[in-house]
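tl;dr need the bound structure. longer version: we got a ligand (manganese (II) ion) that a collaborator sent over and nobodys looked at where it sits. i said id run it. heres the input, straight from their email, havent touched it
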Amino acid sequence: MTDAARLQSRIDELARVGGSGTSVSRLGLTPLEGQARDVVASWCRRQAATARIDEAGNLYVRFAGEDPNAPVLLVGSHIDSVPEGGRFDGALGVCCATEAIVSLKESGVRFARPVELVAWADEEGARFGVGLFGSAAAFGRLPSNAAERRDPAGVSVADALRALGKAGDPTKARRDPRDIAAYLELHIEQGPRLDRAGKALGVVSDIVGIYHGRVTVRGRQDHAGATVMGERKDALVAASHLIQALELIAALFPDTVGTVGEIAVRPGAKNVVPGECTFSLDIRAPKQESIDQVLEAFDDAVADVTGRRGVQVSIDRLQTVAVTPLDPEIRALLLRATNQVGVDAPLLVSGAGHDAQNPSLSGVPTGMIFVRSTGGSHNPKEFASTADAALGARALELAIEELASRG
Ligand code: GLV
Ligand code: MN
Ligand code: MN
């Protein structure tokens, strides 16, 4: 059975890779993510399991089943982080999945079907802007030209994969969803609902749809001293109006959020009126209709700002992920499993994106357990207690046992 102390030591060991205090910066498709993969693979070495890293940098560790040809049960999460993120986002799911599977093996449980532990590569998309990268590659859902996307230093996804010893073509990581019986993922909740409800665990019913885009505002680069205020085409000031418009628009729609988290100004000098400004757009909602309406209203804001300020604005759509309902049968199974460990788990809609969206949208029965977290997420204060994490791992273990024993 899941060992809480060993689970905590896995969390601590993984957090040391790219960690400093409680902060973790372990970006996807970097050598640090590779080190984290090595740590996870090392945890399975004492089991008769086979590890492989696919063409997108995903780590799979396969535990044999009595029928080697039966569709596998896939369990895991991601091991990359955002810059200056926390120790639990993604990592907790991989630690709990490992602990659950290894515990089952140690108790001599025989799997009817193979069980695969997965540590997805680059879920956050923090380096190249392609979120859910590894799982999207595995399920043939990468945005077009994903391999050519570049980080701020000009390194492409293909280059980063080649640096890992891969061929540079992540589409080769695709697998047939029919070979996967089910996918399970445990993750911290990343919001306050479980904490406020006094519950250690939740079960996810649906995951929001996501739109990621990039807005480019082109104005006119000018001398900051010699250009009078009435004659400027300041790209940054125009962008600031659009950023405020996004906040106002998103607030009009229920459960809908809009965020600008990245911005770059060119040429970027204190005595130059900015000639160009690019910023990211992240819009999410449980209904696609709300995302579409936010985008329409944002287009109106763009028309208004370009008219008033004489700038040009273009919007590139970088990635979209559809609203994702998770499988009702797996959901019922996870509610039973959480109940068995003593938690009356509420059903929650996830406002964060998850790798689970890719298998689910590809027809693989998929379910997620949330573990209570405090301190928010995508920051060094995110936190899940050992006790809560162990309860989650135990519920996951029960669910794995049930799904893996079905022939
Ligand atoms: C990943 O954490 C996301 O929701 O963007
Ligand atoms: Mn995250
Ligand atoms: Mn995550």
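gonna send this back to them w/ a short note. The two ends are 22 Å apart (CA to CA).
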